């Protein structure tokens, strides 16, 4: 008597490779972080802040260099521009994000009141929100009930408002990030133009600024999943235009004063 072949229905089935020969994505342990989008936004804001610091400070120091060869005057203008720009960016972000945080808190307060005073209506609302995502009515009701029993406010905040009650926007983080990123970007033209290379001071600064703008253009495009070449050209083009205009203004002003 021959042995019957063993059933393989319970054994894991081999996974077919993808067209490029790689293993399917489900075989790889990928970290899932609900806050990754928020972190990417902060990173993008930091890159843009550095870009602003490079361009605005370069415009100031090159404009002053067009009017005078005094290192003291150039350094004073550059440092003042860096400090003023950093504080302005930080203050603007703090005010803007504080307003956003106040709005988020107000929405959560309203949602909390509705859950306490209109629980049935809120359960139905949550059910319909899940239905709108393509879930059947029966499953949507089950999901809504389970989530409501677990944490009703979180369920409504995330599904209805797109908010995490434990991770609201932080104005101090935004202000600090903007201050630091602007200052770091500003240091590139400021340090280079103060190097002891009198004959090539302006051109060295232009070269350093272009390299900095290539980097920030590349990073901003990568973070936004946009074509890098176009972003770099746009970034560098605007930087060169800014420096050319401010240098010309400095030359005209310096000649007139002289």
Q: How is this fold's topology laid out?
A:
Blueprint: H1 36-67, H2 71-117, H3 119-132, H4 137-161, H5 171-193, H6 201-223, H7 228-257
Largest sheet: none
Using the alpha-carbon principal axes, give the shape. Answer: elongated
How many H/I helical runs?
7
Percentage of β-strand residues: under 5%
The average pLDDT value, as a whole number, equals: 82
> Radius of gyration, Cα only, in angstroms?
28 Å
**How many strand units?**
0
Query: Total domains, how many?
Result: 1
Helix content: over 70%
Instruction: Report the end-to-end length measured between terminal Cα atoms.
Output: 112 Å
Low-confidence stretches: 1-34
Order of helices and strands: HHHHHHH
The structural class is mainly alpha
What does this molecule look like?
The chain is mostly helical and 258 residues long. It has one domain. The chain is built from seven helices and no strands. Helix 1 packs parallel to helix 5. The N and C termini lie far apart (112 Å). The N terminus is likely disordered.
List keywords for this structure.
elongated; mainly alpha; 7 helices; 258 residues
Q: What would you say about this model in short?
A:
The protein is mainly α and 258 residues long. It has helices spanning 36-67, 71-117, 119-132, 137-161, 171-193, 201-223, 228-257. Helix 1 (36-67) runs antiparallel to helix 6.
